Amino acid sequence: MHAIEKLLAAKSQREEVHAGEIVNCDIDYVGINDLYYQTVKSFYEMGGKQVVHPERVILFFDHYAPCATEKQADNHKRFRAFAKEQGITHVMDIDKGVCHQLMADYGFSKPGEIVVITDSHTTTHGAFGAFGTGVGATDLAVIMATGKLWFMVPKVIRINLTGKLPVGVYAKDVILHVIGSVKADFGVYKAVEFTGPVVKELSISERMALCNMSTEMGCKAAYIQPDEVTFAYLKEHGITDYTIYETDPDYIYDADLTYDVDQLTPQVSVPFSVDNVFPIVNEEGIPVNQAYLGSCTGGRTPDFAVAAKILKGKHIAEGTRMILVPASKKVLEECMEKGYIKVLLEAGATLTAPGCAACLGIHQGLLAEGETCISSTNRNFPGRMGSVKGRVYLGSPATVAASALQGKITDPTPYLKGE
Asked: What are the average pLDDT values for consecutive 10-residue runs of the chain, which has 419 residues?
């Protein structure tokens, strides 16, 4: 069995499971973001009266943080009332940040557990050796009512990353390159495991970026085998209660792909599909109205660090605005302590509250018709960040910073020589 299969077997009280089987699993942590008040409605429509494990439920006020409309405010009001009624104490209010980063910050993401959130990028938690997946309102309501949810055991794809990352190339560039190669439907209802010497060298932040975007090639879940990097992060956060599962040596993967990153250059995803990926040299020089640094993909402390390195003592281009959205309050505090925020503000950037903000086109950085944005986020569909006639290019945080500096899509490599 694969480690994921062993995890699903344990959570469904079975000795073994295999791809294609249906299992009914105990869920360790369940998250509801503030887009999904329908989960509460569905819970009551099903006859739910008491959430079976309120201590495992986390409410995230991240998409509407802070609220921009009366309807959003009403959603938050209703969620707060539901939490009080049901004894749900994990309420991450508008000052906290994006659900996936908060799961890591608060120690809810750990090896050997199942994490289910009303967000497709819940694949992020594979970076910790967890089985993380997104669901809709009805499935989430089922978990609140029963503590369980059914899954079809997925086939597993292995992506082996070899070589050494060149200067200016990050996990975001790697995953964009992979998605561009295999396309958006490659992993539909499959899991992907990232392995190889490149992964071994990646920080938790970079591993989260890698797993986060695996959903953009259709994957149900992502997985990185916990190692010394994982254990060091867990120890730092005081987490000691977790289970490690190992893949059997004779497990046969559904597909086994290898990418050598030695010659990889910064990549950009071009409107209007995430798998529409090209080396940055193909797109260099395209003017940008906005540079957006943030989200559960590219809004962590190391992302602000590289942006500050590029922009220190400089100023963003005239006619280009740069928006900063830290992934969480903790990230914001760390970036303030390290001076990154000060550097970026002095360079002309605008700071907004931790959360999802304009990543999904709700508020705090929307595009007007005809405007172009270079973004560290995860999607560039029509209307994703505002007008359906706006254009979003996806790149690494370094690419976002270099592009803000020049006012056009720019290779960050020259600014990072000697890194």
From this structure: 98 97 98 96 96 97 94 95 97 96 95 97 97 96 97 98 97 98 95 98 97 96 98 94 96 98 97 96 97 95 98 97 97 98 98 91 91 95 92 98 98 86
- Equal fold, 3-259 vs 267-416: yes
Question: CA–CA separation, 303 vs 313, rounded Å?
Answer: 18
Do residues 99 and 117 make contact, with C-beta atoms less than 8 angstroms apart? yes
Distance CA 129, CA 224 (A): 6
Q: Which CATH superfamily is domain 3-259 in?
A: Aconitase, domain 3 (3.30.499.10)
Task: Read off the DSSP letter of residue 166.
Answer: P
Task: Tell which residue, 394, 348, 386, 383, has the closest CA to residue 364.
Answer: 386
Q: Each residue of 126-157: pLDDT tens digit?
A: 999 999 999 999 999 999 999 999 999 999 99
Q: What CATH code is assigned to 267-416? A: 3.30.499.10
CA distance 12 to 207: 27
Amino acid at the residue 178: V
Residue 374 CA to residue 364 CA, distance in Å, equals 15
Domains of the chain, residue spans: 3-259, 267-416
- Rounded Cα distance between 51 and 88, Å, is 9
Which of 112, 334, 108, 68 lies closest to 225, judged by CA?
112
Residue pLDDT, tens place only, 304-314: 999 999 999 99
